[in-house]
Amino acid sequence: MRIEVWSDVVCPWCYIGKRRLETALERFPHRDRVEVVWRSYQLDPSIPEGETHPTLPALAAKYGRPVEEMRAMMRHVEETAAGEGLRYSLADGVSGNTLLAHELVHLAAEHGLQGAVEERLLHAYFEESRPVFDVDALVPLAVEVGLDEAEVRAALADHRYRAAVLDDARTAQALGATGVPFFVVDRRYGAAGAQPADLLLQLLERAWAERDPVPSA
């Protein structure tokens, strides 16, 4: 069974959703027969590549909210994340274009390290306040999880996975995704948002039952 997860490495709910999916999988008796594939989705593809800016004032301006109101909303997300064992400091965050990060995740998939890279990028951004928007920021993280530095630099320089990243975004749109995280099981069942682990487990159980139904007596 395949679970595809559309996600962005700067999406706070995506990291929460990842933890909840992991909890659901721990309780799923057929987890050893489940493949998790990370798909690319940019929260804000309009940010020019190479540019960064503080997240808090940018979000306040985007949604037309006072900065302090946006800060309070961020605290709510931080409290939710803490419930999943994650330590966020969202008001101090910096935003940028995540295309290169998504290209790196696709490269990692070629080496069986996609899940490890996805986790490392999320952890770096949300719990270490490290940037994930340029080659020099991404290379050390990739090397940590076992990728070759020269290959990473070459792949990000020639953008060999850019088409795959953009194709993921088009597929998400075709499947009806309007935000992330977006979970799809065997291209038959879906769940939008950082759903509770119980709901994700129900999704897995339903998909499995229809995949391998128990023969009737």
UniProtKB/TrEMBL annotation:
GO terms for molecular function: isomerase activity; oxidoreductase activity. This is Putative DsbA family dithiol-disulfide isomerase. Keywords: Isomerase. CDD domains: DsbA_FrnE. Residues 3-204 form the DSBA-like thioredoxin domain. The keyword Phosphoprotein does not apply. Pfam families: DSBA. SUPFAM superfamilies: Thioredoxin-like (SSF52833). Coiled coil: none annotated.
